[in-house]
Design brief:
The chain is of the alpha+beta class. Helix 2 crosses helix 3. The chain is globular, with a radius of gyration of 19 Å. The N and C termini lie far apart (48 Å).
Length: 145
Amino acid sequence: MQIAKYLPDDLDRRIIAHLRSDGRAPLAKLAAALGVARGTVQNRIDRLLATGTVLGFTIRMREDYDDLTVRAVMMIEVVGKSTTHVVQRLRGIPEIRRLHTTNGNWDLVADIQTANLSDFDRVLREVRMIDGVANSETSLLLSSV
């Protein structure tokens, strides 16, 4: 038996939007901004967490906070039907912060962050050694504009 995927409604999406801009916002502040009761916001957040729609809360930092990191975007081409295997292996590489499926010439896009160029080189080699990775192209992110 498969569990139905929870589909957030307009209020849920508005709560998520507010939490994206301020994940530490008090429930009372969210409730006032959304024009609903505090209990409604609490119940909605609880449901978003329980259904896996929201996986957790994290901190966002200025891009220029740590200039000693190497950031890059890697486009990855996968052979045949090996996407699931490749994705599982890529998720095991801690320096891959986010992983996306995409269309076009590339199958996956990886957001990579390492402490230095040596670690960056190691990550590139690890990705390219995964069975099912046919090709990749990587661009270093130099500055945010």
